[in-house]
Design goal:
The complex is a heterodimer of chains A (324) and B (315). Chain A has 324 residues and is mainly alpha-helical. Chain A has one domain (81-319): MetI-like (MetI-like fold). Chain A has helices at 21-34, 36-59, 72-75, 82-88, 93-111, 113-124, 128-139, 146-156, 162-169, 181-209, 213-221, 226-251, 258-264, 270-273, 276-286, 290-319, and strands at 65-66, 77-78. In chain A, strands 1-2 form a two-stranded antiparallel ribbon. Chain A starts with 20 loop residues before the first helix and ends in a 5-residue tail after the last helix. Chain B is globular and about 75 Å long. Chain B is 65% helix and 0% strand. Chain B has helices at residues 30-61, 65-70, 84-91, 93-125, 132-144, 149-158, 176-188, 191-199, 204-215, 217-233, 236-241, 250-258, 271-300, 304-311. The chains are: A mainly alpha (324), B mainly alpha (315). Chains A and B meet through helix 1, helix 2, helix 6, helix 7 and helix 8 of A and helix 1, helix 4, helix 5, helix 6 and helix 9 of B.
């Protein structure tokens, strides 16, 4: 058996800085031969990412071309920024950007703190049994598919649906809520919270249980009451994970939830419901307007990347916590 | 304190903190008691809001369609009792083929996911590989930037995968997120185990299957759960990649019934009862589609806390 082992190799704890490329290639060749089994295992994974992630990145080139399926991506004619101009001069650009951002901002404002509040409430419970019951029930909707959630919501917010009945009882009109553009964001964000609040609370709960109990002891000896202990011990303990998750969430400000939007919206609610991703879906996939939709999608991804970078920078400045 | 040193051979990733109340805090004063009462009330209300929609769908699906249509306000018991809607749903060939297709996608897809993710995570946990860093960067980059919907669609089309089951399995073969989770777990295994195996003459494949996989079973189970749930719930890419109705997974069938309201094929008879029956059929469909999840839920439950913890940001 000539399986090479680390122990058998000449020890070099501090590899020499980059040498001539030829030397690098020779070393790489040796490395590939020595660890061929590991590299063989890695091969399908690398191939997968190359084909299904990097080829589409290359495919975004069609945003700058007049894509002709017969000629392929490389053969199509360059048109520069024409498609971007067409989008930004279009009728709907402001509506689309506003809808995308508003839907997400409401979701961050109400949806992001909800699991934190739930975790804090659960943490204060004295009865272990009751806490388990609440957790079991609130985790459940996370496992229900978005189609079923949308189906239930469409039904509850239809004419005579239970939500519409509640709205009528509170003095609203008997029109189905789901066809009312002014209700769309509320229904979307509300159902989002309904589905994810329990599951989202797990990570905060885990963090809470990881806080050193002696901190609470010390606070109590110093005469802190429950509220003061929460403000001075619990919240600082939660802050790092909160900021990390907030960065990740803000990085998705342009993308989240469009699968549910497609299920919930209708031409009557496009006014508030149509977001960039759904617009791309209708024009790109349904109308086969590939280049135009790719350009719109590329704008979306680029802005998302910028937002993530900005949020990460902010988090590093405020809390010293960064995801890269 | 009651910290005991455990001689557990499990890696740190598997010895996650148990979720239990640790801080004993005597509560005194009326303010504290008032808060406790309010807290229990709020959480009870939350449970009701979360649970009632499911309960409503259940009792509505069991109701007489016409009696259900006439009912107004909060409903706590079925209006009459009828299993007709369930019969119609079960006789719908699309629901049956949808179940079969989804089963195939969940089992086949998750198996492929796990094999590839294990291999990738193993290779990338070898810090001595010269290509470990570049490949890792290549994978992480895909978490932040994607080609977008249209280029992905064109790729799947050009590969000739449209209208094949592979179209909803291959493009989702590895999740960068799950790969990183599993790699962290592999990294947490003490290197002594591997050294010992190597001295016994084990190769990479043996070390992966005989050392890492058994030691990281809890994490692997969680990753499998993430993959399986995603496959079970996915509808969007089936919708754009599949047009052959024979291949439709359950979620796509559900979409037709619940969102596009195409229950007509399931109904015959006079117009008066049709609209009412359509509603109960929808509810019965929700129940049928949710039952499998509810059936495995108790078994999944023990992985929840661990799942989110290993999903937490480790790197």
């Amino acid at each position: 058996m000539n399986t090479p082992r680390r122990a058998a190799m000449p020890a070099s704890p501090n590899p020499a800085p980059a040498r001539a490329p030829a030397g690098y290639l020779r070393r790489l060749g040796r490395d590939l031969a020595r660890n061929r089994v590991a590299y063989l295992m890695l091969l399908p994974v690398v191939l997968y990412f190359a084909v299904f992630h990097y080829v589409p990145m290359y495919g975004t080139l069609i945003a700058f071309k007049d894509f002709n399926p017969a000629a392929g991506i490389a053969g199509s004619e360059w048109v520069g920024l024409d498609w971007f101009r067409q989008f930004f001069n279009g009728l709907f650009v402001e509506r689309l950007i506003a809808n995308t951002l508003l839907l997400n901002i409401y979701d961050v404002l109400f949806g992001f703190p909800a699991p934190i509040v739930l975790a804090l409430l659960l943490n204060e419970l004295t009865s272990e049994k009751f806490r388990r019951l609440v957790q079991t029930i609130t985790y459940l909707p996370h496992f229900i598919s978005v189609v079923v959630v949308a189906g239930m919501l469409l039904d509850f917010a239809a004419r005579d649906g239970i939500l519409t009945q509640v709205a009528v009882a509170l003095g609203g009109t008997p029109d189905p809520l789901i066809n009312d553009p002014s209700w769309f964001r509320t229904l979307f964000v509300g159902s989002e919270i309904w589905q994810s609040v329990g599951w989202g609370s797990i990570i905060y709960l885990a963090t809470l249980f990881g806080i050193n109990p002696s901190l609470y002891e010390a606070a109590r000896i110093d005469g802190a009451n429950r509220w003061q202990r929460m403000v001075h011990v619990t919240l600082p303990g939660l802050l790092p994970i909160v900021s990390t998750l907030l960065v990740l969430r803000l990085g998705q400000l342009m993308t989240v939830g469009f699968e549910k939007v497609i299920l919930l919206y209708n031409p009557g609610t496009y006014e508030t419901a149509d977001v960039i991703s759904t617009y791309v879906y209708r024009h790109g996939i349904l109308d086969a307007n590939y280049s135009y939709a790719a350009a719109v999608g590329l704008c979306n991804s680029a802005v998302a990347l910028l937002l993530l970078a900005a949020a990460n920078r902010l988090s590093r400045k405020l809390t010293g916590n960064s995801i890269w | 304190m009651h910290e005991t040193m455990q001689g557990s051979p499990l890696p740190p990733a598997a010895t996650l903190p148990r979720l239990r109340l640790r801080h004993y805090r005597p509560r005194r004063g009326w303010g504290s008691a008032a808060f406790d009462t309010l807290n229990v009330t709020v959480l009870t209300l939350l449970c009701f809001i979360t649970f009632y929609p499911f309960y409503y769908v259940l009792i509505a699906s069991l109701s007489e369609p016409v009696a259900l249509a006439a009912h107004q306000g909060l409903m706590l018991l079925p209006q009459g009792l009828s299993f007709e809607a369930f019969g119609r749903v079960w006789q719908n060939p699309m629901v049956r083929s949808g179940f079969a297709n989804t089963l195939f996608i969940v089992v086949g897809g998750t198996a492929l996911n796990l094999v590839l993710t294990c291999c990738g995570a193993y290779a990338l946990s070898r810090r001595r590989l010269m290509l470990e860093k570049p490949v890792m960067l290549m994978i992480i980059f895909t978490m932040f930037f994607t080609g977008g919907l249209v280029p992905n669609y064109l790729l799947v089309r050009d590969l000739g995968l449209l209208d094949s089951r592979w179209a909803v399995i291959l493009p989702f073969a590895v999740s960068a997120w799950n790969l990183i989770i599993l790699r962290s777990a592999f990294n947490a295994v003490p290197k002594d185990y591997e050294e010992a195996a190597r001295i016994d003459g084990a190769g990479d494949l043996t070390i992966l299957t005989q050392v890492y996989v058994p030691l990281c079973m809890p994490t692997l189970a969680v990753v499998a759960m993430f993959y399986a749930v995603a496959h079970w719930n996915g509808y969007f890419y089936s919708m754009i990649y599949l047009s052959d109705r024979e291949l439709f997974p359950l979620q796509l069938v559900l979409r037709e019934i619940l969102v596009s309201s195409s229950t007509d094929s399931m109904m015959t008879g006079e117009a008066a009862g049709r609209e009412a029956l359509s509603t109960t059929i929808k509810y019965a469909t929700v129940i049928v589609a949710t039952l499998p999840v509810l059936a495995v839920y108790p078994f999944l439950q023990r992985f929840f806390a661990k799942g989110v913890l290993v999903g937490g940001i480790k790197e």
